[in-house]
Amino acid sequence: MASEADASTDDGDVSQLDLLAASLRADTADLGTFVGVLAEKLHALLPDHADVQTKRSRLHHGAITQVAITVSGAGRRLELHYAPGGGEPLAATAARVSGGIVLKTEQLDIDAWLRNLAEVIADEARSSEHARQALAQLLLDSGAGPEADG
């Protein structure tokens, strides 16, 4: 019977993750702000799974000039690189990892990267109380949680 309850929770998680991914996509109009906020949230909420590297300008009041986000979990490594000022400002990849060895890496658009991110967080949340709390906090912050139905 516990597995039936787990299955219904998983279905709820999937719809919540769809809402989270949609909310995150809606915030991509200002890429610099979007990447900065996402980096802060992931680093604060998932310190064991998210690595964030940020470079700031010394000339422009500490404005972010580059951000690299790496999220690892569930046999995947997701990377998002933001570097405005030439070419494509945003590069997103997903890699399949087994035993620390990268098996396959593919370029993704931001929507696909966000879906992969939501899946990694959900997978981790199934086995970790800390990741479950982080997922709940991300959902609440995005307005996608049950309290937002108001």
Low-confidence stretches: 1-9, 144-150
Number of alpha- plus pi-helical segments? 4
Overall mean pLDDT stands at 77
- Indicate the percent of residues in helices: 40-55%
End-to-end Cα distance, whole Å, is 31 Å
Strand content: 25-35%
DSSP strand tally: 5
Number of domains: 1
Strand order of the largest sheet: 1-2-3-4-5
Summarize, please.
With 150 residues, this protein is α+β, with helices and mostly antiparallel strands. The protein is built from four helices and five strands; from the N terminus they run ααβββββαα.
Fold blueprint:
Elements: H1 2-26, H2 31-45, E1 50-56, E2 64-73, E3 76-82, E4 90-98, E5 101-108, H3 110-127, H4 129-142
Antiparallel strand pairs: 1-2, 2-3, 3-4, 4-5
Helix pairs in contact: 1-3, 3-4
Structure in words:
The protein has one domain (2-149). The protein contains four helices and five strands; from the N terminus they run ααβββββαα. The two termini are 31 Å apart. Residues 1-9 and 144-150 have low confidence and may be disordered. The radius of gyration is 16 Å and the shape is globular. The chain is an alpha+beta fold and 150 residues long. The longest helix is centred in the first third of the chain and has 25 residues, at 2-26. It has a five-stranded antiparallel β-sheet with strand order 1-2-3-4-5, covered by helices on one side. It has helices at residues 2-26, 31-45, 110-127, 129-142, and strands spanning 50-56, 64-73, 76-82, 90-98, 101-108.
